[in-house]
Amino acid sequence: MNETAVAPEHLDVVIVGAGLSGIGAAYRLQTECPGKTYAILEARDAMGGTWDLFRYPGIRSDSDMFTLGYPFKPWREAKSIADGPSILRYINETATEFGIDRRIRYQTKVVAADWSSETARWTLTLAERDAAGTVSQRELTCSFLYACAGYYNYDRGYTPEFPGRASFSGQVVHPQFWPEELDYTGKRVVVIGSGATAVTLVPSMAGQAERVTMLQRSPTWISAVPGRDKRADKIRELLPPNLAHRVIRTKNILFTIGFYQYCRRRPAAARKLLTALTTRILKDKSLVAEHFTPTYNPWDQRLCAVPDADFFKAMKKGKAEVVTDHIDTFVPEGIRLKSGRILEADIVVTATGLQMLPFGGIVPRVDGRPVALAEQFIWQGAMLTGLPNFAVCVGYTNASWTLRADLSSRLVCKILNHMDRRGYAAVVPEPDGKLTEQPLLELAAGYIQRSIDDFPRQGDRHPWKVRQNYLIDSVTTLRTDLNKTLTATPESAVRETVPAAAR
C-alpha cells in the first residue's frame, strides 16, 4: 500500500457548466450557502455556454431579457430581445461582479462520475486540457454534484442525410459551427428549417445576401414581438433600478404565462389571433395560409418570436422568401424540391436543429453500477431517483429558461442547508407510490422527440410532475417539505464505516 499517495482534491459542491445556469447557480450557492467550497467545471475555454458557442448572424434571445436575465442582476440595456454578444457580456459581467469568474476551471470536462455510498462522495474523473493542447486526467471528489450544462450536445448538431448533398457545388454550413470567414455578400442563401435559429438567420443575412430563402417542410407559427419594451422603459424612468427590474420581471412573467395558458385553453382563438396579426403585417391572406398557419396548435411546439417583425419585413422588401415543400435531392446548382422547383443557392444553411445530450453527457455510476437515466424519475424538476446528492438544472420550455433554473438552484441550496442542520451525509428522492411515466419534455419539436427517450421521466403528480407554470412553482418549490420525499443517510452512518483520514 502506498502511504504517500495524495488524496484527490475535495469540494463541497461541483457545478458542471459555466453558462447562464452555472453562473446563476454559483451566485445562489455563494449567497445562500456561504460556507460551502465549490468550483465550476467548464469543458470549453470560455464561459457563456450557448451564448459563447453560437456565433451565427443575428443570434439573439427568444425570451425577454427581464426574465431570461437573473433576478439579482437587473438587465440595463435598451433592447428586451437581446443579441447574443449582449447576453454574453451580461453573463461575464455577472461572473466578474460577484467573483464567480475566479471559481471557474476551463478546459475541464467531467468524463466519469462515481458515487460511493460508503464515503457519501462523488468521485469525478476529469479530462483537463492545458495550453499546449495536451489532455490529462485526474480525480476530484465532491459531496454534491449539480449539472448545469443544459441538454444540448455542444460537439454535434443535427443534420439529416440529404440525397445528393455531395453533388452540390456551393457551401453547406450548420449554425452551431458557423465559419468565421463565411462571406455571403451578394450570395443566394437557402436556410433549411423554420425554428428560432432559421427565423433569426433569414432577416440577419437578408441585408447582405442577394436573396435568402427559408425552406420549411410544413407551416410554422411565427409571432412578431416588440424588440424594445416601451412599458419597461417607462418603469425604469420612474423607479430605482432594482425595484424597476422586479416590477418589469413580474409584468413579463404574468404576460408570458397568461398568453401560454390562453393558447393551451383556447387554441382556436389563439390560432385566429396569430393568423390575424401576421396577416396584418404581410397583407396577404393566401401567403399566411400557406406558410404561417400550421396544423398543430400554438405552443404544441415552441412559438417563434421575431422582434419588430424583422422576418416579415425582409419578406415584404423582397429580400427573403419562404418556401413550404420537401427536399427531393441536392443538385449542383442548389436544391430540387418534390414539386420540381429548383432553389438555386450558393450557400445552404442547415438550421435543422440540435442534438440533445442528457446533462453534459455525464453517465453516473452508484457503487460501481451505471445508472440508466431513462429509468429514473425527476423530483421537483431538479433531483433524480437513484442518484444521491445529485441535481440537474432544466429550464422551462414555455418561458424563460432562467426562471426555473434559478428556482432549481435555490432549491439545491435549501437541500444543502437542510442536510447540514439535520446532520445528513446524503439524500435521494424516492416516490411514496407507483408513478405513471411521462416524458420529461412534452413539446412535439423534432429535436426533442429524437432524443427524449434518453432522458429521465417525470411522473403524473406533484412533486414528480415538471410543471410549466412559474407562478405555481415559485410558490410551492421552496416550501416543499424535504422530509417527505427525500430519503437521508445520516453522517453517523458514514463515520462508522469510513476512517477519519478518508473523510
From TrEMBL:
Record-linked Gene3D superfamilies: FAD/NAD(P)-binding domain (3.50.50.60)
The keyword Oxidoreductase belongs to this UniProt entry's keyword annotation: yes
EC number: 1.14.13.-
Parts of the chain that traverse the membrane: none
GO molecular function: monooxygenase activity
Co-factor requirement: FAD
Alphabetic keyword roster: FAD, Flavoprotein, Monooxygenase, Oxidoreductase
InterPro entries listed in its UniProt record: FAD-binding_MO, FAD/NAD-bd_sf, Flavin_mOase-like
Keyword Transmembrane appears in the UniProt entry: no
PANTHER family per record: MONOOXYGENASE, PUTATIVE (AFU_ORTHOLOGUE AFUA_8G02570)-RELATED (PTHR43872)
Record family assignment: Belongs to the FAD-binding monooxygenase family.
Protein name: Flavin-containing monooxygenase
Species of the source: Nocardia suismassiliense
Organism placement in taxonomy: Bacteria, Bacillati, Actinomycetota, Actinomycetes, Mycobacteriales
